[in-house]
Amino acid sequence: MSEPTATNATDFSALDDAPLSTNAFTRFRSSNFFLSFTIGLAVFVDLLCYGIIMPLTPFIVEKLGLKSTANGALIACYAVGLLVASPIAGIISDKLANRRIPMIIGLVALLLSMVLFMEAMDHFWVLLLSRFAAGLAGGTTIT
């Protein structure tokens, strides 16, 4: 058996070299494992919301009495929002010292856009707006 190295993501012994003024929780929060887990969780939540909505859109469009091109418009609105938000959020997060703020803002915006989508099943333009907002939120979350 080989000895664990400091580069192992589950080995927290390298955190013992941190200054004594920080507590164990602060050192754990700064570890590569915690950062990777947090980012992975944010991407998972974003893709889960996308994966829940997309299979339902054909039924929603049919209920509204629209053609299948309306389903394509719902999908395209998400993609356009993602395309618009990703570079802008990337520039903003590069300028901020704390990259958590854009990610948290993106997750809250994703929650709000999902609530808007659920509440606006009778108005197609609001569905389009909510999908665009979800794309903006997704672009902010994963940047």
**Count of DSSP strands:** 0
Provide the low-confidence segments as ranges.
none
N→C terminal distance? 39 Å
Taken in chain order, the helices and strands follow as HHHHHH
Gross morphology: elongated
- Number of helical regions: 6
Tell me the fraction of residues in β-strands, as a range.
under 5%
Overall radius of gyration: 20 Å
Mean pLDDT over the residues: 84
Largest sheet, if any? none
Give me the secondary-structure category: mainly alpha
Residue share in helix: 55-70%
What does this structure look like?
There is one protein chain. The longest helix has 27 residues, at 69-95. The model has no long low-confidence stretch (mean pLDDT 84). The chain is mainly alpha-helical. Helix 5 runs antiparallel to helix 6. It has helices spanning 24-29, 32-53, 57-63, 69-95, 100-119, 124-141.
